[in-house]
């Protein structure tokens, strides 16, 4: 369990809030398996750019255009690792 105030705790709380909101509108919240402890669940813009093999500017443009989901948390822009994995999978299919 992550100590309160950490990024992992904030993301866990956000996921719980989304699940509660989905229940309120009558939809089942998707259940993703928990990542292993050494795998980050969110990446900075720089980390996402390195993983995708593109520049930070390219990642920021994709975020602004709506092609890459991101959240602002404590003044940082974070991209869910699943979003980066989705982009990598989409690119591999093309």
List keywords for this structure.
94 residues; mainly alpha; Multidrug-efflux Transporter Regulator, Chain: A, Domain 2; three-stranded antiparallel β-sheet; 52% helix; globular
Give a short summary of the structure.
With 94 residues, the protein is mostly helical.
Question: Could you walk me through the main structural features you see in this protein, from its secondary elements to its overall organization?
Answer:
By secondary structure, the protein is mainly alpha-helical. It folds into two domains: 1-31; 34-93, Multidrug-efflux Transporter Regulator, Chain: A, Domain 2, CATH 1.10.1660.10. It is built from four helices and three strands, in the order H-E-H-H-E-E-H. It has helices at 7-24, 45-52, 56-65, 81-93; strands spanning 42-44, 71-73, 76-80. Helix 2 (45-52) crosses helix 3.
Count of DSSP strands = 3
Number of structural units classed as domains? 2
Mean of residue pLDDT values: 81
Percent range for β-strand residues: 5-15%
Shape: globular
Residue stretches low in confidence (pLDDT < 50, at least 5 long) are none
Could you say what the CATH topology of the largest domain is called? Answer: Multidrug-efflux Transporter Regulator, Chain: A, Domain 2
Counting DSSP H or I runs of 4 or more residues, the number of helices is: 4
Structural class: mainly alpha
CATH architecture of the largest domain: Orthogonal Bundle
What does the radius of gyration come to? 14 Å
Helix share, percent:
40-55%
State the CATH class of the largest domain: Mainly Alpha
Measured distance between first and last alpha carbons:
39 Å
Strand order of the largest sheet: 1-3-2
Order of helices and strands: HEHHEEH
Largest sheet: 3 strands, antiparallel
């Amino acid at each position: 369990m992550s100590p309160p105030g950490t990024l992992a705790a904030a993301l866990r709380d956000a996921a719980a809030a989304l699940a509660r909101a989905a229940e309120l509108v009558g939809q089942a919240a998707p259940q993703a398996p928990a990542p292993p402890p050494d795998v980050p669940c969110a990446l900075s813009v720089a980390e996402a750019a390195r993983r995708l093999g593109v520049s930070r500017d390219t990642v920021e443009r994709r975020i602004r255009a709506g092609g890459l989901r991101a959240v602002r948390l404590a003044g940082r822009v974070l991209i869910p690792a699943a979003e980066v994995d989705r982009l990598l999978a989409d690119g591999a299919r093309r």
